[in-house]
Design brief:
Length: 296
Amino acid sequence: MFTMICPVCEKSVNDMQGLALHFRSGSIHGDGKHASWISAEQIEHGISDSDLSDVLIRIFRPEESLIRWARMEFIAKFYAHPHPFMEAMQKPTVPVLLGYVIEHRFFLKNWIRTLSMVIHSTTSDDAFEYEVENVATEYIGLNGKPSHLELLLRMGEALGMSRKRIMEYSPLPETSQAIEVWYGISNRYSWIDTMGAMHVLELVADRTLVDDGSPIHYFNPEILKGSDYPEAVKNFLMEGYEADVGHAGEALKIVQAATMDDLTTRSIMLRSMDAFYVYLNARMRRARMLEASWGE
Ligand SMILES: [Zn+2]
C-alpha cells in the first residue's frame, strides 16, 4: 500500500485505483480540470484507451525509473508536438527573445526562492552543496563567470531593450500563476519533491533528449555557430546548452535516490511541468504584445 497525490488538485489517494476513482468522480461532478488534463495527457502520449486505470498507469509508468520516466514525460509534453515557444526558438525573432528576457527574470527569482527551501531543510550534504552552487550560478555568478540572470539581462540589452526598461515590467498572469504553483510546492512538500519539481524543468535544454526521441532541440544549435544573432544571445543560450546536461542529470539522481514516495514525486513533477507549459505560453504572449507595439 502506498499513498500518492492527484497531479491536478493534490488530493491524497491510496493508490492508482484510488486515483482512477478520484478522476472518475471529478468527471461525474462536471469538473472540467480533471477531464481536460486526462484528455491532454492521452493526446500527448497517443493513448486511445478509455479505461481510466489503464490510462493512469500508462502516464505514471511505475515500472520505469524516475529519471527515465521524467525524460520521456518531458519529451511527450514539450517536444513530441513542440510547444509554440520551442518552435519559435528554432529561428527566434527579437520579440520572442525579449519575451523570454522579460518573463524569465521572474522565473529566475522564484527559482532561487523555491530552491532555497532545499538548502534550508535537506539532510543530504550532496543536495545542500548542489543547491548552494546552483543559486550562485543562477543569481550571483561563480568562478568569475557572470550569473545566468546577468547573461539574460545582457541578451535583452543586446537586442535593444535597456536594463531599466526590462526591470519595469510586471509578470504576465500566466507567469505569476506558474510561480504560485512552484512556490506552493516548496511550501507543502519535502525538499526531495521540491528538487524534483524544479530540476525536471532543466531537461528543457538537455541536448540528449534528442537521443531519446525528441524531434527538435530547445533551439536550433546553428544559432551558436552563425552570425545572425548578437554575441550576448549566443552567450546566454550557450550557457544552458553546455551546462544543463550534466546539471539536471545530477539533481534528478539525488531525487531518485532519496525519494520515499516515488509516485507522489511523479505527481509533483507533472504539476511542475504543467505549470512550465503555462509559463512558456507567457513568453509567447509577451512576444506577441511586443510585436503589436513595435514601432509605436
Ligand atoms: Zn484531483
